[in-house]
Amino acid sequence: MNDVINRIGYSAFGLHISSEIPLPTVQITIADESIVDVEIEIGDLSSLWSELATNSNVYVIKDDFVMFQLPNSAIYLIKGGKKIIVSPLEGASLEKICLYLNGYCMSILLLQRKVIPLHGSAVVMNGKAYAIVGHSGAGKSTLTKALLDKGYYFLTDDVIPVSLCTESHQSMVMPAFPEQKLWEESLSQFGIESSGYPVIYEKDIKKDENSSEKRTKYVLPVSQFSDRPVPLAGVFEIVKTENTADIGIYPMQRMEQLKTLIDHTFHRAIIPPLGLLDWHFKTVASILSRIEVFKIRRPTTYFAAPEMVSLIIQTIDKENEDGRQYSIGS
To answer: Is residue 127 part of a domain?
Structure first.
């Protein structure tokens, strides 16, 4: 990778970041470069990976660092919640390296700093943050885009950093970068031409034994961006359904809410070996004492994002009428 330049300062995920790798986004430079929470550096991790990793290793987890390797990208080491070292593999593109840097690496670093990284997107509606979570392919980014088209503001995509504020007794969502990642089919559904937008990810999806299709994900700049922490008011989990009678938004019982936030914590598999199991459970429970969690069942047979947006607005309006903490606005 030949795109390495001198350090650049960014503010994202509630952190001041100093990076030797130019992150392919609208630059957000920190005002005081002497205040640095996280350093991102280029280094050679090949020998350390060969020494510590085995064929069965997905991660190498030690007391003060986590390391992993992704094909055609890089070896990454995240240390003590303060440093990320990137060892690019031959032929790796800057876009692909940064895709995992901003996603996988930052979520691990947030866990090391005892910040909950939910896997999804977050938008701002009248001063409150609403997280949209779901498994891969559920339609998180598509629904977020539909909300942005209604005039709401964008906070973060892929990683949602949630911190407990002891002073305000609120759960705060930290903004990331003003960019959103969308699959090509989602762009088509919104009538957006993909040409001109950077490709950030491609993968082959097997259709049957003899054929496959390529799926392409693009990164789009977002102008409606909220660059300040926002209190979390609610979480919506998207699940797909083929039964149109099931389409709608449904409240969850507390135990189901707890399971949802645990299941959608980014890198939850590494929480036990990091010794964070007790902290994670207590923090998620504390977050749930301040919010409500709903399940969105959306159809697989047609493009339903506008319908889902209307249901979300109706749900928030009803919660507001009932005297709870939800609010609605333009």
So the answer is: yes
